[in-house]
Known about the structure:
The complex is a heterodimer of chains A (380) and B (232).
Chain A: E1 2-5, H1 7-19, E2 32-38, E3 41-47, E4 51-58, E5 60-63, E6 65-70, H2 71-80, E7 86-91, E8 94-99, E9 102-107, E10 125-128, H3 129-140, E11 154-160, E12 163-169, E13 173-180, E14 182-183, E15 189-195, H4 196-205, E16 211-219, E17 222-229, E18 232-237, E19 257-261, H5 262-272, E20 282-287, E21 289-296, E22 302-312, E23 316-320, H6 322-331, E24 336-341, E25 353-358, E26 370-373
Antiparallel strand pairs in A: 1-5, 1-7, 2-3, 2-6, 3-4, 4-18, 7-8, 8-9, 10-14, 10-16, 11-12, 11-15, 12-13, 13-26, 16-17, 17-18, 19-22, 19-24, 20-21, 20-23, 21-22, 24-25, 25-26
Helix pairs in contact in A: 1-2, 3-4, 5-6
Chain B: E1 2-15, E2 20-31, E3 37-40, E4 50-52, E5 56-61, H1 65-69, E6 74-80, E7 86-101, H2 112-123, E8 133-141, E9 144-151, E10 157-166, H3 168-181, E11 190-199, H4 201-209, E12 213-216, H5 219-222
Parallel strand pairs in B: 10-11, 11-12
Antiparallel strand pairs in B: 1-2, 1-7, 2-3, 3-4, 5-6, 6-7, 8-9, 9-10
Helix pairs in contact in B: 3-4
Keywords (chain B): Cytoplasm, DNA-binding, Endonuclease, Hydrolase, Nuclease
Domain Endonuclease NucS N-terminal PH-like (chain B): 3-106
Organism (chain B): Klugiella xanthotipulae
Amino acid sequence: MKFTVNRDVFSEAVSFVVKLLPQRTTLPLLSGALIEADGSTLTLSSFDYEVSARTQVTADVEAGGRALVSGRLLNDIANRLPQAPIVISTEDGRIQVKCGSVSFSLPAMPVDEYPTVPQIDDVSGLVPGEDFASAIAQVSLAASKDDVTPVITGVQFEINENSLGLIATDRYRVAVREIDWENSMSGDALTALVPARIVTEVGKTFAHSTTVSVAIVSKDERELISFTADNKTVTSLLIKGNFPPVRRLFPEKVENYAVVNTNDLIEATNRVGLVLDREAALRFSFREGSVTLEAAGSEAAQASETIDAHLAGDDTVVSLKPQFLLDGLRSAHSEYARISFTKTDNPNKPGPVLITSQTSKDEAGLDSYKYLLQPNLLLR
Amino acid sequence: MWVRVVIAKCSVDYAGRLNAHLPLATRLLMLKGDGSVLIHSDGGSYKPLNWMSPPCTLSAIEVEPDQAEAGITEIWKVTHAKTADLLVINIHEMFSDTSHDLGVDPGLIKDGVEADLQKLLAEHIETLGEGHTLVRREYYTAIGPVDILARDAMGVHVAVELKRRGDIDGVEQLTRYLELMNRDPLLAPVTGVFAAQEIKPQARTLAEDRGIRCVVLDYDALRGLANHNTLF
């Protein structure tokens, strides 16, 4: 194998493939990046039986072939190479990387033992890249990081005719967003539960792509999802199990709500929250015209701040964990945010609070983002 | 093994890898059967102000006339057997000096939470997955009891090792049980489940590499303690 490739093109391709390498693997082979040169195409891949990344770039191939080399090392090297064409070749079981006056010689791993990277040709549908990335950023942060309930460590994909819904929850909050979906499969309804870590990475990778094609397939009794755009593909096994029916937690109609300037409330929450202990909640008292934030921490430290708010309905007091509120407000991606209060009959459990985007004081936001948050019990 | 407990007004000097001085005050001196000497104040929880770990020897040295004039009645010298560390206790007044034989130490009894987890998981065996049924708790094998033996929805035996904190040792333990149990034609095939409140990443990696499933348990949820700060 011998080929010449553009330095920046190669470095970007390697960094994409390596980002999804497993953190901890018991099979050293799987920490490798697979390099395949054929015709005028260079293919780079990584795969750990659960997640794969694969990309193709143009290269000047002198001799085709395959090689496997430590992914992280190759990535570190590619990032530091000078601006000159890179020549990569295999010689006596070693991989030579030459760039300008720099040369590296790396040990090759046995490429014949490397598993076959999944290749999916089907397409279930297409999504606009930018919307997809922003929906992922809005939703995936609500996914659970706790292994107690594996099904909620994923982001649920719900496909319905012309829309793709993304849902994530950690039981404290639920985030939902719908985006356009251009269906290209026979059926029109499908769900898939994808590990949140992979979804987050997919969002970052394809943020600047025009369209991303998504495929959900069953292969050898395993269910896979793949994301493809700009010659890059990420595949992941789906999480088995049923995602909890969290959509029904959302209220159908709310009369009691407040509209606040998102940034003002974020800053006030950050400031007043300084005195709070970890895990403690902030008290928010909504009245017509204003909301007052109050915090009481250990060692008798206290803080309060009042900012403008427009209230519809009754005066309301809620106790919210600052981080959970901040996640919801930031993800609203809008100048104003609407905080709606729901009623409950349970005296031990306050009704959830719903955060949605708002383009102005009076106009609801255009996107379908919804963030439902459970307030803490008021202690006084 | 005798433990000697002394309450005395004393000053203490430590010399060796570090030098430290405790000024004259009333303190609790504990002389344990293993030879260790610990100096406690009325505070600082379990932690002594100063101490000498075994192997070490305690000897009373002669009080010089000028020291006696300063009020010292007894001087104890504790020397470490392997290092040159030295602890000198100058006793001015002894208030209490008692010795007790504590007998043979039975060691730490199995953690309460772990035993409770076993009982709770047996009661809620479906936590392991739909269709799981309990065979029995403490299934005895030749090398010790397996915490829980169950059957999955297909009727295949599942051996469960329970830990509060799941680390590599627990995985090794379960691996030994599985190896043995899979030799039993009446049990085989037996799959493994490593269940804990918290599983260390290394332990998870090793377990999954050996085909052992990891299950993280929520103690509060098993006990039926609802968290009111969640949506569902």
